[in-house]
């Protein structure tokens, strides 16, 4: 079955062509196209969320002798969910308490917008300064916010530190070696992932100077320098958002990924797919097909820099993108690209300068509330059972009963487990 999706810009007769680079002739038989209404699409997405992000949990309350407690009052409160939703942050968070409060109350993950990039930490040769990213890391840690390392190198020529761009080969090699050792060693064990070589499908600054396998060597070096659990991301734009960008098609992405892991097999451990997600007019069927294709790699997928271009439907489009990503079982995290700066955000702001939500911010808050399980309460049945559908995460379960002197509290973790949709927990109280 050939799987994909498209949205029609107009109605009327159309011809569809299939193109293949196979070395044999392909004959396609029994072709059919199935239209889907928006309601049908949303229903399928909701079913996918239930399968990928939720589990029906069945608790049984028993006394110390193992006898079921009927009519026990049970309440479940979410401590944390397993799906990380985050946002970019700028250095202005260090001096703005309103920004700190707004960010820390919402997000589990942060990416420093520019502050960890090479041109920020070493603006002049040999003059390294990590004061700002160190302070941002300290803020994140103090608020329980995980950090993505962004980025070690950027393959775009114009984004190199000015002093790097014209370095001859020997000096450039020495500078790059110093850079990767410096930043990765400094934050090893403190970040959950590294954008090791940013945008190496569209650009080739380092490949043009060191050879086609420059990125491959950088990934191998980063893994040696941070041998912990940090994911090593290949971060790229337009793979999800622009079907017409031939440089970043999902198949091309997978081909590049295989190149990076083939020469150094150790690169395959801990690799991850980073999809920036800078959308203008989202093509949601294409987005789903692209995620299906990339999921074949069998490694984590994150949307790493999500924003939507300004326009009357900006908030609506943002919600469509976030819902589609959350519903896909291969997507393991989302980071929004809306770092606040007094002069304005990169493309999409979530708040005004007083940290009052804009419509995009309202979308994010609404989805955060929806994706976190609301408190559940009820009573056990005659056999002491209580059942609820919960998103994967950690919960505080409280049980009280007239036979008990005090209510009893337990911590319960709900995850995907072995695949059963029911998750049984014996609450002996």
Automatic annotation (TrEMBL):
GO terms for molecular function: endo-1,4-beta-xylanase activity. Signal peptide: none annotated. Residues 70-367 form the GH10 domain. InterPro entries: GH (IPR017853), GH10 (IPR044846), GH10_dom (IPR001000). One of its GO terms (biological process) is polysaccharide catabolic process. PROSITE patterns: GH10_2 (PS51760). It holds the Pfam family Glyco_hydro_10. It comes from the Eukaryota. Keywords: Carbohydrate metabolism, Hydrolase, Polysaccharide degradation. The keyword Transcription regulation does not apply. Belongs to the glycosyl hydrolase 10 (cellulase F) family. PANTHER family: GLYCOSYL HYDROLASE, OS03G0201500 PROTEIN. This is GH10 domain-containing protein.
């Amino acid at each position: 079955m050939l799987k994909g999706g498209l949205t029609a810009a107009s109605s009327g007769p159309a011809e569809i062509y299939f193109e293949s680079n196979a070395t044999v002739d392909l004959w396609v038989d029994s072709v059919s196209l199935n239209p889907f209404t928006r309601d049908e699409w949303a229903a399928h997405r909701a079913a996918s969320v239930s399968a990928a992000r939720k589990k029906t949990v069945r608790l049984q309350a028993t006394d110390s002798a193992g006898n079921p407690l009927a009519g026990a009052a049970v309440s479940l409160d979410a401590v944390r969910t397993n799906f990380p939703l985050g946002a970019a942050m700028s250095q202005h968070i260090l001096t703005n308490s309103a920004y700190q409060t707004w960010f820390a109350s919402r997000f589990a993950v942060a990416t420093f917008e520019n502050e960890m990039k090479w041109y920020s930490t070493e603006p002049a040769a040999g003059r390294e300064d990590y004061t700002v990213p160190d302070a941002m890391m300290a803020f994140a840690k103090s608020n329980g916010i995980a950090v993505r390392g962004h980025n070690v190198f950027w393959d775009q020529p114009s984004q190199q530190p000015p002093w790097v761009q014209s370095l001859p080969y020997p000096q450039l090699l020495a500078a790059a070696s110093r850079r990767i050792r410096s930043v990765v060693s400094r934050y090893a064990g403190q970040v959950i992932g590294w954008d090791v070589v940013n945008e190496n499908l569209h650009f080739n600054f380092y490949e043009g100077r060191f050879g086609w396998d420059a990125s491959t060597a950088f990934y191998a070096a980063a893994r040696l320098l941070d041998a912990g659990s940090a994911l090593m991301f290949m971060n790229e734009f337009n793979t999800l958002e622009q079907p017409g960008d031939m440089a970043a098609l999902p198949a091309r992405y997978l081909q590049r990924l295989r190149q990076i892991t083939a020469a150094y097999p150790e690169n395959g451990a801990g690799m991850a797919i980073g999809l920036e997600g800078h959308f203008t007019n989202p093509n949601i069927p294409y987005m789903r097909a692209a995620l299906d294709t990339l999921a074949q790699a069998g490694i984590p997928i994150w949307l790493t820099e999500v924003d939507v271009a300004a326009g009357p439907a900006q908030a609506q489009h943002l919600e469509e993108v976030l819902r589609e990503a959350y519903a896909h079982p291969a997507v393991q995290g989302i980071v929004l690209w809306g770092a606040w700066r007094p002069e304005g955000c990169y493309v999409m702001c979530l708040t005004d300068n007083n940290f009052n939500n804009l419509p995009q911010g309202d979308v994010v808050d609404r989805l955060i509330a929806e994706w976190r399980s609301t408190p559940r309460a009820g009573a056990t049945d005659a056999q002491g059972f209580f059942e609820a559908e919960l998103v994967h995460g950690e919960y505080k379960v409280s049980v009280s009963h007239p036979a008990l002197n005090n209510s009893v509290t337990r911590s319960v973790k709900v995850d995907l487990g072995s695949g059963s949709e029911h998750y049984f927990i014996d609450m002996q109280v």
